[in-house]
Amino acid sequence: MKTLGKGSGMKKVILTGLFLFIAVFAINAQDLPSINILNNTGYTIYYIYVSPSESDFWGDDVLGDEILLDGETFTYQLPYPLSSVNVYDILLEDEDGDSYFQWALDLARNPRIVFTFDDIY
Fold it and tell me: What is the pTM of this model?
């Protein structure tokens, strides 16, 4: 019969901790809802910012290296579960630098947001 050394108990603790971390992360990731942003502005969108309405900051561009052509939809996974934050502001910027806003959107009620030229600021 093979005996385990002192280090094997520590390996089990580390592996168990790692497994629990991954499990919690996976469960939390499933709780984060996605929204769909439809571009019906007539222009190509280069930047999208999504921020909780209570925040004073827009944060990073969530579109990244992509562009959103007129008529296309962009899907974005929100950073918080709707149980903690469900009212957001969304800003789009087009190829000419024009901004389109929608304020105080209750994304728990409607996860599909349509931007049109009427949303220009």
Answer: 0.75
Q: At residue 85, what is the residue type?
A: V
- pLDDT, tens digit, for every residue of 23-71? 454 445 557 999 999 999 999 999 999 999 999 999 999 999 999 999 9
Q: Which of 90, 100, 99, 46 is nearest to 68 (CA)?
A: 46
Q: Measure the CA–CA gap between 36 and 24, rounded to whole angstroms.
A: 26
Alpha-carbon distance 50 to 42, whole Å?
20
Is the Cα torsion angle 89, 93, 97, 102 positive or negative in sign?
negative
CATH of the domain at 115: 2.60.40.2890
Q: Which amino acid is at 76?
A: Y
Count structural domains, the chain: 1
Whether the CB-CB separation of 32 and 80 falls below 8 Å is answered with: yes
- Radius of gyration (Cα) for the chain, nearest Å? 21
